Amino acid sequence: MSTVDYGIARWMVIGARSVLSIAIAAAMAVGASQAQTAADAALSMANALDGAGGGVSSEDALAALEAAAEAGQPLALWQLGTMYENGEGVEQDPSRAFGYFSQIANEHADVAPKSLEADIVAQSFVKVGEYYRDGLPDAGITADADRSHALLMHAATYFGDADAQYRVGRLYLEPGGLGYNPLQSARWLSLAARKGHAAAQGLLGQILFNGGEGVERQPVEGLMWLTLARNQTVGTSDATWVNEALTAAMSLATAEQRTEAARMADYYGPQFASF
After folding, report:
1. In this predicted model, what pLDDT tens digit does every residue of 28-51 receive, in sequence order?
2. Whether the Cβ atoms of residue 117 and residue 108 lie closer than 8 Å to each other
3. Where do the structural domains in the chain lie, given as residue ranges?
4. pTM: predicted TM-score of the whole model, two decimal places
5. 168 and 157 Cβ atoms separated by less than 8 Å
6. What is the 3-class SS of 79-124, one letter each residue?
7. pLDDT for 167-184, tens place per residue?
8. Is 1-160 in CATH node 1.25.40.10?
9. Cα–Cα distance measured from residue 179 to residue 23, given in angstroms and rounded to the nearest whole number
């Protein structure tokens, strides 16, 4: 279970319970170890309420989530945001999704980086940043690249969020981003890659293997990162481009470089796995 994918099915057990029960379950989760992720807290909340009665309707579940959101519970706000963003159990409504994600970001911007809700808050900054990048006319939001970049930077720096760091790394390579700078890109991508972010590993591998402005070519390390990315992206949307990048690099590498890169990937793989 990822740190932000709670699963609507787990929330279905909440609907027929009172708001008081939700608050008690939330308090139990918050009182758990601070090393626990917000996803763990959500699962703990669901487990605490599970078995207290069946036959919960989707309307009841939605009402319970909305009640918890009105009480300011970040877990409920996040769940509602993702539901409305993706049209899961409700009619898709990006404007409402934006509102929920914005509320989390506005009310919890300075929450401790290692706190229970930090991952949700960081990803809310990423979500809001995406909306400002593209604009959302229905919500009166015009495209604002500078604001989008600032939101991503907050998630990447203050919270150390791997996905935000990956996105910042990409911005140093893209037109209209933060200014073309492969060295800065590699630095940000390295932060995310070492946390197990597969796409960051793949892009970092390409930069290191090929070299660039300010980046000395490091074919062995580049192949290692590409190999780690390939191993982690099997069956995902990133699999094709990562495989193509690794195949291209392998065709240019020497036998010695391929052997050493494979050895390094085996050694470092467990350390840099699974974002």
Report:
1. 344 343 334 554 554 454 444 444
2. yes
3. 1-160, 190-275
4. 0.80
5. no
6. HHHHHHHHCCCCCCCHHHHHHHHHHHHHHHCCCCCCCCCHHHHHHH
7. 999 999 998 899 999 999
8. yes
9. 46
